[in-house]
Amino acid sequence: MQLISTSLDSGWELAERLPAGRDLFLLSGGEKLWLPATVPGHVHTDLVKAGVIADPFKRLAEWGARWVDESDWTYRTSIFVNAERLAARGIGGRHFLHFAGLDTLARVFLNGKYLGQADNYHRAWRFDVTEHLKEGENELRVEFDSALRVGREKAAAYIGDGSSDRGKTTYFNFPPRAFVRKPQYMFGWDWGPELVSCGLSGSVELLTVPVAEILHWKMNYTFISPSVVDIDFAITLRKYDSQPLTVKAVLFASGDTTPSTVLEGPPGEYTVPLQIRSFVTERWNPNGVEGPRKRHLLNLRLLTVPDDQGDEPEPLHRIAASVGFRTIELVQERDSPPAPAPRGYPGGASGGSSFQFKVNDQPLFIKGANWIPDHSLPTTITKHQLRQRLTAARDAGFNMLRVWGGGLYESLDFYSLCDELGILVWQDFGFACATYPDDDPAFVESVRAEAVANVRRLRHHPSLALWCGGNENVELHQGRWSGNDQATKFYGEKLILDTLPEVLKIENPQTPYWPNSPYGGVDCRDENSGDSHYWNVWHSKEPGSNGDWSNYEKCDTRFSSEFGFAAPAGLTAWKHALAPEDLTVRSLGSRWHDKTRKGYETYLGFIKMHFPEPQCFADLVYFGQCNQALAFAFGIEHWRRRKGRCGGTLFWQLNDCWPTHSWAVIDSAGEPKLAYYAIKRAYSPLLLSLRRAGRSIEAHLVNDRHQDIPGQLSVQLLTFEGEPVSLAEQAVTAPANAASGAQLALAIPGFIADAGTDVFVHALFRPESGEPVESFLLLADPKDLRLADPGFQTQVGEHSIMIEVQRFAAFVTLYFEGVSQQPQLSDNGFFLAPGQSRTISVSHLPDHQTLAQLAPQLRLRRL
Ligand code: BMA
What we know:
Blueprint lengths: L3 E4 L5 E5 L8 E2 L3 E2 L2 E2 L6 H7 L11 H4 L1 H5 L1 E10 L1 H5 L6 E6 L6 E5 L2 E6 L6 E4 L7 E9 L2 H13 L27 E3 L2 E3 L9 E6 L2 E14 L2 E12 L5 E7 L8 E4 L4 E13 L15 E9 L12 E7 L4 E4 L2 E6 L10 E4 L2 E4 L2 E3 L1 E6 L11 H13 L4 E4 L8 H10 L2 E5 L12 H18 L5 E5 L4 H5 L15 H15 L5 E2 L17 E2 L26 E3 L4 E2 L2 H7 L10 H5 L7 H9 L8 H25 L6 E4 L9 E2 L11 H9 L3 E8 L2 E8 L5 E11 L4 E11 L3 E10 L2 H4 L5 E9 L5 E6 L14 E4 L3 E5 L4 E8 L7 E2 L4 E3 L4 E7 L7 H4 L3 E4 L2
Parallel strand pairs: 27-28, 27-35, 28-29, 29-30, 30-31, 32-33
Antiparallel strand pairs: 1-14, 2-5, 2-6, 3-4, 6-11, 7-10, 7-14, 8-9, 8-11, 12-13, 15-16, 16-19, 17-18, 17-20, 20-21, 22-25, 23-24, 25-26, 34-36, 37-38, 38-41, 39-40, 39-42, 42-43, 44-45, 45-49, 46-48, 46-50, 47-49
Helix pairs in contact: 6-7, 8-10, 14-15
The protein binds beta-D-mannopyranose.
Beta-D-mannopyranose binds next to loops.
């Protein structure tokens, strides 16, 4: 009598639910209009498919789809159940409807009978239908209310007449989205459209559980020596009848250790402990760390007690998971004298402390980015797409992604890929840039259930490194956003300081918790402790800071969990989104797809600060992306040079959810912007970083490997023709897992220091063994350089392209004209010294072409 699960994902229809009398859109004869619905899916995708709305990603069509979010929608399907299935529940068993996701405010009916309601996107829902299911056809109906309207109504009721503390509303205090537990970004963000949407966001199943099922499970382990663990399982199950059960844990590769126990007793919920002692295993290590990334398959089974032959019967219920063993710590040691409370914030002084991740007892400098949902309508995200993004992250040397709180608790595919690729996950709970009604008990209980569900879902993943209470909620409350009138009470404090820690204490005490991002110190912007979001470049209003990325050097944070610089998506993404006539620098289409709230002219001004004025759309993309590449490399190199004091950088942001101008470095077409490659260089395990300090150039080495690397370092100033101006050279050692400080300084001759328009700096570090690393530095703004034609020579091989130059070339960019998608390149947007050549490997060629066939379409661009 095993658990039976039947998918109910097919046969769904949807219709707009209008108040009586307003339902004018009927078919001839007065029949209501039902459209085919995709499950899992969103109302918007089905409306596009049916031709009701235009694709909201195209041109200004987002605007035309606004009405969809003001409406209510009903979904329905018919379930056929035969007598055999009805009887399959046995005597004590039950039938359930299981919704892996409901987006979001829903009422569920079976055969007209109300089963219950849902109010939270971030969890699964289950309804007992044992008493309502009948033989033959059953009508299942789900009614969704407009999340936007309900959010607005709740906000208005909560705020009241505005005279109380709650009345201190701004754009961010108590927006409608703060009252609906659904991904906050769907209400619109400064990189995404407003597509609130609704729908069946997860698969639907009919479950029949005759005897017993596993509800959830927990695994805890301790290393008793470097490669031996003691493991404790706690398996929570429900029995529906009184027969005894065997509960078993099979950890593959564990030899004969498959502990089991027999559970007797009446129907009810039980938690069964099982232990594996002295389990020998290799560790799970993150990307970039030498050592294995071992994972084991775990199988939890419920069985009827075996017969005399001892053959294992088919399990009543089975759960499979992949697990790995590692230690993870977030070390916050007080290590510097107290810093005065900054900028008049009340509360005295705060001490300095580290913010250092340690994995398997080794300090790990965090290299990564913030992750947002990879599509505005999250059910459309495929595993293939996630694999592409996460592989790109791995290939760029990332060891962590922060799953930002305004997005999703991601799919299991996401975390499994992170386990596989060695990418640690900093997981925010689902709160961002708002104050939340934490004095409403129903709201708090909804949050608690959401937290329990997600912690149980994700806690066994070896990649899970940190739980964080949300994004910028404390910063908002502390009044650090301009024009924000502070409420006395911090609305949301209870969630991050009570509710979430209470859940974690029971469900996952092993994983570190950080109440918010940024957080730490008396003022969450304290740079002496905690993490920082440094937006003083992009969002700064101070003239001189505004848009000037060299200001990243002003931030001496212990951990840079956000900083970002925006640029246009690549041309492939724009060709999907815009019409040919929109492909101009100031078209409405381009401006609509800029949500950065900077003002479009300011945005263009940031580019013009360093690069020539874009004359056409291709210029806008190219110069914008070059500028972004410089900005990110500058910031990352700065904080990596501060390794030791600084524990890591997670730049804002890896990916996009639609075609747009944003801080992302991989656009919605999956194509890397030039900054992606600059970051890949800046995140290399051995970094040679050049820094201009007045009239001299410093060369720093940052070594993430665990051995000292001795070698020869040279820094050279050259003309664009390759004539040497000056040179410094020295034998140096890059110390193990540390930043070296300035190893070598080269004075800039006086006649160059003020102009620098005809020279560049090229540095090289040749380790005694292994590959050399190099670095370039410009001494003038790119727009002022007096560059000549570099004299490109190219040679196209089977899977690679070789490029050689006679003269210095900056931001050398390869692309193919007229292809549906750009192939994958190992590098792009790079610099070449006179006489230098570079071989770029090319893979994932579009349209089943060979590189030889594509060669005529190869184009090169440079500054
Ligand atoms: C940060 C994030 C996001 C935002 C980004 C760019 O503060 O947390 O809310 O999209 O800045 O403005």
